[in-house]
Amino acid sequence: MNAFQDESRLRRLAQAYGTPLWLMDAQTVRQRFQSLQGFDAVRYAQKANPNLHLLRLLRGLGAKVDAVSRGEALRALSAGFLGDSAQAPLHEAAQSEIVYTADLLDRESLEFVAEAGLVVNCGSIDMLRQLSQRSPGHAVWLRLNPGFGHGHSRKTNTGGEHSKHGIWHEQLGEALAVIREGGLRLVGLHMHIGSGVDYGHLQQVCGAMVELVRQVKAAGMDLLALSAGGGLSVPYRAGEAGVDTAHYFGLWDAARREAQALLGHTLHLEIEPGRYLMAEAGCLLTEVRAVKRQGNVPFVLVDAGFNELMRPAMYGAHHGMRLLGGQGPLLPSVVAGPLCESGDVFTQGAGGEVEPRPLPAAQVGDLLLIENTGAYGASMSSNYNSRPLIAELLLDGDEERLIRRRQTVEELLALEQQ
Ligand code: LLP
User: Fold this and answer.
1) Number of the ligand 1 atom closest to the C-alpha atom of 376
2) Residue 36's pLDDT is what?
3) Residue 393 belongs to what H/E stretch?
4) How far is CA 272 from CA 63, 73, 242, in A?
5) Cβ distance 37 to 31 under 8 Å?
6) Each residue of 155-169: b (16+ CB within 10 Å) or e?
7) Does the beta carbon of 376 lie inside 6 Å of ligand 1?
8) What is the pLDDT of residue 153?
9) Average per-residue pLDDT for the chain
10) Low-confidence winner among 88-102, 146-160, 192-206, 390-404 (lowest mean pLDDT)
């Protein structure tokens, strides 16, 4: 987080660009990307932060990209990632720059992936049926639900019976039959069981993956690639350990080797992180605009709300906070935003209960930095309370670049003026 240590720089940026302001640090992104180089491909799950400049930065490093909507796919194409590989020879399709991952295809997206030739990672058998009709020969991955999952919140657990994601593991045979009979071509198997890893679960996922490869082989079919999905956790709280990427790779590489032994040829192994690449590379810079006490509880009201950073309100997610220049005793403070809604609080637990945070006494005009917001910060923002999207700034060493200008209210109104 060195890019965010220099308080005089942060003050200057607040002056120059206004607050609230998203800050991203290119060097942290590069460092996180490099730490995953054991994998054959790092496929960025751009839902974490789909800014075109970040996509270009990652593309320049050699990343591939995941898209979960037509909009994300158009971003990837616009950033220079190549489409048009779904009908290519299978070994090329297995290394496609873009993969479109979904559990359903609306009509427009079905047409789009067929036209743009995007390899599709299918999370339902109906997707396979629809693709086989619209685009015979299309290359597909199967996103499988191994029957269990894991996540930092119930809302980010993507495996098990209560998850809508992926093809249920017991239906792999049916999916393979649709691929074979529908004339599709299987690239590989994919599993993403949730965001926030724990090594015990990971080992279980790897075991499930090998078992499913065994079933593909038993069905008389073959595949070229495995995807470990995303889900690598980051230390949001001080003292939490970061993920050990060598260990993570080691577990998946062992699974890949077992699968290779079953199939008798090499397999391409990719990983699909979003949070890990971006979370620690970003901060939200806000200004304190009011301080008050409700009974005994000190409230610090800042100019950003949950329309900017939704994670605390949605998951009770913890984000570190730093009051610039803050000194003196720490007071258990509630940090809240400007929205006309009582849940607009950045210091809350998963059930919405307020969790005061020890902070030095704040004054109007102080700057408060909310940390680790680079993933699922800007990308989950909304226009609630008719607040325009805020600007994003990319720091790279001493340089800084505005990578998204602030939206205007006029732009919002224009959508309705007809
Ligand atoms: N691949 C697939 C198929 C996914 O569904 C996801 C995340 C990822 C990769 C990337 O997961 P990551 O490496 O970022 O954990 N808004 C939530 C996270 C939702 C994640 C949804 N899918 C949050 O703010 O924590």
Assistant:
1) 24
2) 98
3) strand 392-396
4) 10, 15, 17
5) no
6) ebbbbbeebebbbbb
7) yes
8) 75
9) 96
10) 146-160
- Position of tokens 């200008």? 405
Return the ligand 1 atom nearest residue 380 CA: 16
Over range 373-394, report the average pLDDT: 98
Q: Read off the tokens for 187.
A: 């690239």
Let me know if 340 is a catalytic residue.
Answer: yes
Residue 157 confidence class, pLDDT cut points 50, 70, 90: confident
When pLDDT is averaged across residues 217-241 and rounded to a whole number, the result is: 96
Phi, psi of 305 (to 5 degrees): -130, -175
Q: Ligand 1 centroid to 158 CA: how many Å?
A: 9
Task: Tell me how far apart the alpha carbons of residues 65 and 72 are, in angstroms, rounded to a whole number.
Answer: 10
CA dihedral 174, 176, 178, 184 (to 10 degrees): 170
Buried b (16+ CB within 10 A) or exposed e, 398-414: eebeebbeeeeeeeeee
Q: Identify the weakest region by mean pLDDT among 117-126, 149-158, 226-235.
A: 149-158
Q: 55-72 pLDDT, tens per residue?
A: 999 999 999 999 999 999
Cα-atom radius of gyration of the chain, to the nearest Å? Answer: 23
Q: pLDDT tens-digit profile of 328-356?
A: 999 999 999 999 999 999 999 999 999 99
Q: Is 231 in the pocket of ligand 1 (CB under 6 A)?
A: yes
Cα 319 to Cα 368, 374, 415: the distances in Å are 12, 11, 34
Cβ neighbors of 196 (< 8 A, separation 6 or more) are: 150, 151, 152, 156, 231, 233
Side-chain-facing half-sphere of 377: CA atoms under 13 Å? 29
Query: Taking the chain, what is the end-to-end CA distance rounded to the nearest angstrom?
Result: 46
